[in-house]
Amino acid sequence: MMKINPDASSMMAKTNPTAGAAKINQAGKTKQSDNTLQTFKKYISDAQEFQHMADTSVKDLLTGKNEDLMSVVSAVSKADMSFKLLVGVRNKLIDAYKQTMNMQI
Questions:
Q1: CA–CA separation, 38 and 12 (whole Å)
Q2: Distances (CA, A) of 13 to 20, 49, 61, 103
Q3: What's the CA gap between 89 and 87, in Å, rounded?
Q4: Mean per-residue pLDDT over the chain, rounded
């Protein structure tokens, strides 16, 4: 099992001294949050693309256009793992949000 250090700011400060301070743009969002949103959008679109490729390969197998069963199994497995990873990340984000909301001031 892999452990993730939630305090990555100390490591970022060593590699990039300006990364510790978040810069705010005109909309009030930090550049770091914009980067995070773009990364999540990329992962979601990748998961959708894997699902589309798996659907296409299954349809091709059923219609007889493709006879390679291993490529179909590989595409379906890749789509399944991508979706499970995405759901796992979503669950971790929801847990972090709930913990933040339960903090006492």
A1: 19
A2: 5, 35, 51, 27
A3: 5
A4: 79
pLDDT of residue 29: 58
* CB contact set of 104 (below 8 Å; sequence gap of 6+): none
Residue 6, classified by CB atoms within 10 Å of its CB into exposed (0-12), middle (13-18) or buried (19+), is: exposed
Structure-block tokens of residue 48: 């959708």
CA atoms of 59 and 57, how far apart (whole Å): 5
3-state secondary structure of 81: helix
Task: Scan for tokens 């069963």, then name that residue.
Answer: 69
In this prediction the pTM is 0.62
Closest CA to 11 of 3, 22, 19, 1: 19
DSSP state of 35: H
- Domain positions in the chain are 33-101
Who's near 45: CB < 8 A, 6+ residues apart?
Answer: none
SS3 30: strand
